[in-house]
Amino acid sequence: MAENDLMDKIVSLCKRRGFIFQSSEVYGGLAGAWDYGPLGAELKRNVKTAWWQAVIHQRDDVVGLDASILMHPMTWKASGHTDNFTDVLVDCKKCKRRFRQDHLKGKCPSCGGTEFTEPRAFNLMLKTNVGAMEDSSSVVYLRPETAQGIFVNFANVVDATHRKLPFGIAQIGKSFRNEITPGNFTFRTREFEQMEIEYFCRPEDAPAKYEEWINARYQWYVDHGIKKENLQLRKHDDQELAHYAAGCTDVEYKFPFGWSELEGIANRTDYDLKQHEKFSGKDLQYRDPVTNEKFYPFVIEPSGGCDRGTLAFLVDAYHEETVNDATRIVMRFHPKLAPIKVAVLPLLKKNEGIVSVARKIKQDLQKDMVCVYDDTAAIGKLYRRQDEIGTMFCVTVDVQSLEDQMVTVRHRDTMKQDRIALAQLKNYLTENLK
Ligand code: ATP
User: Fold this and answer.
1) Residues 404-422 pLDDT 10s
2) How far, in Å, from the CA of 431 to the mean position of ligand 1?
3) What is the pTM of this model?
4) Which ligand 1 atom is nearest residue 303's CA?
């Protein structure tokens, strides 16, 4: 399959089945913004839960945080965003279109013109005003990253939790960037969700923790179903590194449009805490409770995009095969990520006995797993519909079920069918969802 075809197929499936819609589509859409439909909302939620479990609940050394999007403007002075979070832009003198200078290869991609205006720095932060006055004193920014919400709460978390180094603070939340060229579906948008960890440690431990986090984050994608051949680690060279960083490695995914960053893992040294101490005047050093020694911890930052991750899970799950001369599209999501776990399908929708058993099965299962009930087509069509959205199991109730109290369970990936006793059904499904 040509790579462009694959992306087109995924975008079209996402719209057709309710994973992802264009934002405000009835008004012609808004560039760089997308909406998650019923299935996309479930999928993205599952991605966030899987991340939260892996980086917080299943470890001993990381706690969660949920900081606000609006922060004191001084935050962005201290972090360097007010002065340095810029893209350099030029305008084509012929067609007047604007481009990122680093994306230009000599000619205007739109009209072929070769004359451009002087380069100008363009800040990517989105600005708004708080309160009744719309002047410079009321300007705040929609955060361009969630990380700073963690740094400014470092002392609060230490005081409240008595955590000892090494420990991390993790959060998931919306970030905003006025990207000049949003595109590639949800890969680059102006509003997106980040999943970030700031892991604080003694300076001498930072190189080892950096390596540990690179491996842990790579493995997380593999554990949730991404094929290894579609993942790679890319180490930044010295020129690419921020001036304060001692190392940065990206986890990249082989999207149909090329290898691209899913997540970056950086050793940010003690830069951020020192900057916030300088700008706030508050002591942000860490005091070792045993030795009383005071110092600035180093920070390892695994910073991933939830939307980019979700897109990678969608692309990697997409699978086409030929079954009985017809194309079967199946989204092979990891069981934890699949939006729907079970579809309950009555073989005859007008048979009261069958309907009542099927309804009861759904009511019982939905307390523990996400289920749907569908009787709107013939069974073959119902199976194909569920395959296309990655539902793990279809449970079919037929006439025989009324006599033997057994149902047919069909597995998404193998299409294998098992006859399972009703009394065993929930156990069987739970076991197979692990
Ligand atoms: P890029 O080089 O692609 O613009 P970046 O290196 O600036 O990304 P970071 O600032 O390191 O990105 O942000 C951490 C993560 O947040 C990225 O790895 C990505 O997953 C996500 N992210 C950043 N910008 C966007 C965006 N415009 N749309 C969607 N996700 C984004």
Assistant:
1) 999 999 999 999 999 999 9
2) 37
3) 0.95
4) 14
